[in-house]
Every structure is written in structure tokens, then in C-alpha cells.
What we know:
The chain has 122 residues and is mainly alpha-helical. It contains four helices and no strands. It has helices at 9-29, 46-81, 97-102, 110-118. The mean pLDDT is 86.
Amino acid sequence: xxxxxxxxxxxxxxxxxxxxxxxxxxxxxxxxxxxxxxxxxxxxxxxxxxxxxxxxxxxxxxxxxxxxxxxxxxxxxxxxxxxxxxxxxxxxxxxxxxxxxxxxxxxxxxxxxxxxxxxxxx
Length: 122
């Protein structure tokens, strides 16, 4: 594509790599909290065990969200490597620079994102 670039792709790449590293570090820190909860009632009371199960469930969901975010980051990094970063994957038009500043992982321009949000089943 021979469109003029209004964005600093190298800066976005550094930002995305940093975001990925932060998410991976957080994932490592919370790894123990996602482990199976001991069900031995002699060592843990019923309420403490329920709290532990709830905490485990919350950490598992947080990890699922981190995994999705890493996938989005990796997709954005791939678009950078392929020279497609900043272009909408739906229409090929420019993604607004402010939209990328807000979320560098966004794959679509505002119009295409809005269209997919109003389509039934999406």
C-alpha cells in the first residue's frame, strides 16, 4: 500500500512489546493463585476454601483475558512486520491515529468497528 503514514510504527512496536512483557510478568506473578485449591477440610475451613475457590476462579478468568490480550498484541506485531499496521483489516483504509494511540492492538477503523458492533450475532 502506498498510503502516507501518519504514525510512528517503531514507537507502536516498542509499546506493544512492552505491553506483552507486562502481561507475561503479571501472569507469572499470579500463577500460584490459579493452581487447584486443596479440598482437605482438616487443613482449611469451609469458608476459607470457598474464598480460595472464588479467588482461583477470578484469577483463571483474568488469565484468560490476558491470553486474549497477548493474542491481540501478537496480531498487531504481525501486522507491523507485514507492513499492514495502521490499516483496517476489514476495509484497508487508515485506522485513525488517535484510535491507535488509545488501543494499538485495534485491527479496524472506527467505521468498520461500529458496523461490526451493530450486526446481529456479533
